[in-house]
Design brief:
CATH architecture: 3-Layer(aba) Sandwich
CATH superfamily: Gcn5-related N-acetyltransferase (GNAT)
Shape: globular
CATH topology: Aminopeptidase
Radius of gyration: 16 Å
CATH class: Alpha Beta
Strand order of the largest sheet: 2-3-4-5-6-7-9-8-11
Distance between the termini: 29 Å
Structural class: alpha+beta
Bound molecules: coenzyme A
Length: 214
């Protein structure tokens, strides 16, 4: 079954959110370097020195299976085609990537330290969920550190949560409650908006382990 999701870019907490594109690469690399090691560890669960190359390339590629969103500060309107104008900074990268089985999507959100706690993460999550739901993806996965229990509170409004535990890490699975009319038409997958992305939905898998319902 094929469906489409379409989302609108917008302004939140003084930043503009839009789909990530190749022109954002240098700004994202600079953002990574502004993040503290603790923030990087929470996102990637290891002491990585840069965005994983294949992850970043795919997040910026505008491919149907991977939605990358950036939050841009100092750029209320931005240039016509997306990208960055003078003085603008990328302060967050969020992504929703269809898993290899196509039965779920993996979420990842990174807000740089100085911009955390302003509602940006919650809004990026809302947009990722809306996108996934519009594409009829039934389940979302997010890997969080065990001590980040509070992130479950951000995910629970979107559906039934269960967790699979690995040392230090909790893989949260969210069975989405349908929220968006899947008959939405596809838009462009350009740089300036979030685009209309097409994903294939298959039956939800059963998972590797026995998840704990929460
Ligand atoms: C996790 C993250 C994406 C949250 O984004 P954010 O912009 O800081 O969060 P928000 O400001 O939208 O806050 C959302 C909610 O979480 C709560 N929250 C935020 N940071 C928190 C923290 N460190 N401890 C407990 N609660 C926290 C906020 O109080 C808010 O709840 P409220 O609306 O009821 O007040 C961001 O902190 C981040 O990038 N962290 C490092 C990477 C990471 O952990 N990513 C998640 C795994 S992929």
């Amino acid at each position: 079954m094929t469906a489409t999701g379409r989302l609108e870019a917008g302004l939140i907490a003084g930043v503009r959110v839009r789909r990530a594109c190749a022109d954002d690469r240098a700004a994202l690399e600079a953002m990574f370097l502004r993040c503290t090691p603790a923030t990087i560890y929470r996102r990637f669960h290891g002491p990585v020195k840069a965005f994983p190359a294949s992850y970043l390339t795919e997040a910026l590629a505008g491919v149907p299976v991977h939605l990358g969103l950036v939050a841009v500060s100092g750029s209320a309107s931005g240039p016509a085609g997306g990208g960055l104008d003078g003085g603008a900074r990328v302060v967050a990268l969020a992504s929703c990537r269809l898993t290899d089985s196509s039965s779920a999507a993996e979420l990842g959100v990174l807000v740089e330290d100085g911009w955390q706690g302003r509602g940006i993460g919650r809004e990026l999550l809302r947009l990722l969920v809306e996108y996934a739901d519009g594409g009829q993806i039934p389940e979302l996965h997010a890997q969080v550190l065990i001590e980040q229990d509070w992130i479950l509170g951000m995910l629970r409004p979107y559906g039934q949560c269960s967790s699979v535990f690995r040392p230090g890490v909790r893989e949260v699975r969210v069975q989405l409650r349908p929220r968006v009319d899947p008959s939405h038409a596809a838009g462009s997958a350009g740089c300036s908006g979030l685009g209309g992305l097409v994903v294939s939905r298959r039956a939800s898998g059963t998972g590797r382990n026995d998840p704990v319902n929460e």
